[in-house]
TrEMBL record:
BP terms from Gene Ontology: folic acid biosynthetic process; tetrahydrofolate biosynthetic process
Pathway given in the UniProt record: Cofactor biosynthesis; tetrahydrofolate biosynthesis; 2-amino-4-hydroxy-6-hydroxymethyl-7,8-dihydropteridine diphosphate from 7,8-dihydroneopterin triphosphate: step 4/4
Organism whose genome encodes this protein: Aeromonas diversa CDC 2478-85
Uppermost EC category: transferase
Pfam families noted in UniProt: HPPK
The protein's name: 2-amino-4-hydroxy-6-hydroxymethyldihydropteridine diphosphokinase
7,8-dihydro-6-hydroxymethylpterin-pyrophosphokinase domain boundaries: 85-96
Any one GO MF annotation of this record: kinase activity
Length: 175
């Protein structure tokens, strides 16, 4: 089993698309570990604020299948095939980590945005504060502690989602 971490983001019908993305990931990977949801400004373009979060899951799917599945989920939730990198998104799914794998293909891992974007690092540090970045060797908790928090505006938001469909306890996550 591999431990994966995925960043989710949306700035179009944010609540609807984040919930739909979580539901789809739950169907693919089973129970999810879910960070708080954060609101952040668009980075790299002028646009509406995003909702962002990170989920952790365990999978026996190989890396190429995980990357393909995430891409297909984005398309299924309204992403255009020719979407620009810095543009509004219904659902943006980025694989951040696949265990401690360091690679450039089929996707660059660990994802560079972990070190540069608060909307990735803060929720990742919430889920895996002691886990170490496979290149820098620093824990995500230490990376977040050292991050220049004035460089990007980010705030937790009230958000509720339930993974009751696969959790016997009907666990609900509310922030």
């Amino acid at each position: 089993m591999a431990r994966i971490y995925i960043s989710l983001g949306s700035n179009i019908d944010r609540e609807q698309h984040i919930r739909a993305g979580l539901d789809a990931l739950l169907r693919l990977y089973g129970p999810l570990e879910v960070s708080r949801v954060f609101e952040s400004e668009a980075v790299g373009f002028a646009g509406s604020p995003f909702y962002n979060l990170v989920v952790g899951a365990d999978t026996d799917h190989p890396l190429p299948r995980v990357t393909r599945d995430l891409r297909e989920l984005e398309f299924a939730h309204g992403r255009a095939v020719d979407a620009k990198k810095f543009a509004p998104r219904t659902l943006d799914l980025d694989l951040l980590l696949y265990d401690d794998l360091v690679c450039a293909e089929p996707v660059s891992l660990p994802r560079a945005e972990i070190l540069t974007n608060a909307f990735v690092l803060w929720p990742l540090a919430e889920l895996a504060p002691r886990r170490r970045h496979p290149v820098t060797g620093q824990s995500y908790g230490a990376l977040w502690a050292a991050y220049d928090k004035q460089s990007q505006r980010l705030q937790p938001v009230d958000f509720s989602w339930s993974q009751a469909s696969s959790e016997p306890s009907g666990e609900s996550i509310t922030y």
